[in-house]
Write a structure and sequence with these properties.
There is one protein chain. This protein is of the alpha+beta class. It contains 7 helices and 8 strands. Helix content is 41%, strand content 16%. The protein has a 6-stranded antiparallel beta sheet. The radius of gyration is 25 Å and the shape is elongated. The N terminus is likely disordered.
């Protein structure tokens, strides 16, 4: 009877361990040649994605993974010892977040430019029928997994505020044609002083934020 109880308890504990997925926590342990497991898989995946080729993602920290770490460390002004400790992890995480955002920016801008020339339609929300300004933005961001409100005034409440001098590609820029600061138009900043929008006169087109647009500029938001 005692043996049966012990067996039952063992089976319960074992099943619970299977139902709770292991959480990879890159940076909680020191990684170096000879390390294995989920942390190394995550490390190798990140290094490969960032262009520091370590070959096959196999969860084994070998010489190729070490060289990838050294290359990353040297590129980010760290001691190139091939050992992944707190400083290297911090730098890896920061650099990877930047790269992920850049990938998203590139995708959003590529999507936005696909619809250059699509006609303007008040209330329009699709390339088949036409876009208004906020319908265009909502559609482009939705194609990239980002949900935004339908109208420009509500889109102006999304994300976080960005100063004009800190604009980055992918930010939303907002304008007021009524001169009272109430948002009535928006677009997607492309960089180099340009933005893409669904214009009532030209459809989806690119403008430079010159004197006129600066005179009606309200602000900008970063939504991812």
């Amino acid at each position: 009877m005692k043996n049966k109880i012990i067996l039952v308890l063992f089976l319960i504990i074992f099943s619970l361990s299977l139902s709770t997925p292991a959480q990879a926590a890159l940076g909680n342990v020191l990684l170096k040649v000879g390390s294995t497991g989920a942390d190394v898989v995550e490390l190798q995946t990140i290094l490969n994605d960032m262009g520091f080729n370590v070959g096959k993602v196999d969860g084994i920290f070998g010489s190729k993974t070490k060289q990838g770490v050294i290359n990353f460390q040297q590129a980010h002004s760290l001691v190139g010892d091939g050992i992944v400790g707190p400083l290297t992890i911090k730098s890896l995480n920061e650099a990877y977040l930047v790269k992920q955002r850049q990938n998203k920016v590139d995708s959003i801008i590529a999507t936005a430019k696909q619809y250059l020339g699509v006609k303007y339609l008040w209330g329009g929300t699709s390339p088949q029928t036409g876009f208004d300004c906020s319908g265009y933005i909502q559609y482009v961001f939705a194609q990239n997994g980002i949900t935004l409100p339908r109208v420009s005034r509500d889109q102006y409440t999304a994300g976080s505020q960005v100063a004009f001098e800190d604009l980055q590609p992918g930010d939303l820029v907002f304008f007021s044609f009524t001169g009272d600061g109430v948002v009535s138009h928006d677009g997607i900043y492309l960089g180099d002083g340009q933005f893409i929008n669904a214009s009532s006169s030209k459809g989806v087109t690119v403008y430079v934020i010159g004197p006129y647009w600066k005179s009606v500029y309200v602000g900008a938001r970063r939504v991812f």
